[in-house]
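SEQUENCE-TO-STRUCTURE ENTRY
===========================

Backbone structure tokens: a row of integers, each naming the local backbone shape at its residue.

Task: work out the structure tokens from the sequence, keeping to the layout shown below.
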Amino acid sequence: MQKQRLFKITDFIIWLNIFMFSAIVIQTWNDQSPIKYIVFCFAFFNLIFIIETINLRRNFNLSIQNKLVNEVKAEENLDESTRENVNRMKQVLLENRVEAEISTKMPDARFIRNAYIPRNDGSFSEIDMIVISTLGIFIIECKNVTGIITGTWNQEYLNILHPGGTEYPMYNPIMQNDMHYKTLKNILGLRSELFRSVVVFGDNAQISNYREGKAFYAEICHLSTLIKSIIKLQERHKTTIESHIVESIYTTLEPYIRKTDEKVKSHVEKSKKKQIESINQ
């Protein structure tokens, strides 16, 4: 769930109606015509509507905040091992929801989940999801974090303010996808304009700034706006892939789904090391 803005651009229409109806009432106040009472009622009901709408948005935001606080309290009572399992399941659930959403709107799409793609230096890029379709190759990074995300998208690290009051850094997922792109391009040898970068956050993430510093080839979104973001990227690049090429790319990448314990251990250790280094900076 995303927080609602208390005041939206569409509210301007309601405020304009209130202003216009009020002006008509003032101008016709001394007239005997009953029209002034009808117009007054329109203005009054518009005012009640906008007040009630703002109140509903405020209550909705409070319910989200209470939900987050309650989840944090519940997870604080878990031991470390159980908490890690819960977080892992949340991540898997988000990835499943992303795949289901794309499958519904893009039935031709082929999915590569949690692939370990080899780099030139002998390490691996773990990519949450690669979506291959006639619209392009979408490198999707899923982030099921809880808290308010601040910073600009051209920074190496963003900041997450957890509902419990703690703050911690997060490596910029757009830059993370940039590394994945370079690895994939090296494996596939395809043109750059066929690749698209999408970062999908879970319901418990609140993004303070969607646009500042964001690269033109990337989109940041929640699940509710995922398809809209995919369409935006397609409209920018205006390139497509033939169906038989889609199958060829899928066949090339499918073997990298078979991950080994050694690959997983190496990736986890590298991720932890990077997070410790960012905290010490």
User: Anything to note?
Assistant: The first strand starts at residue 110 and ends at 118.
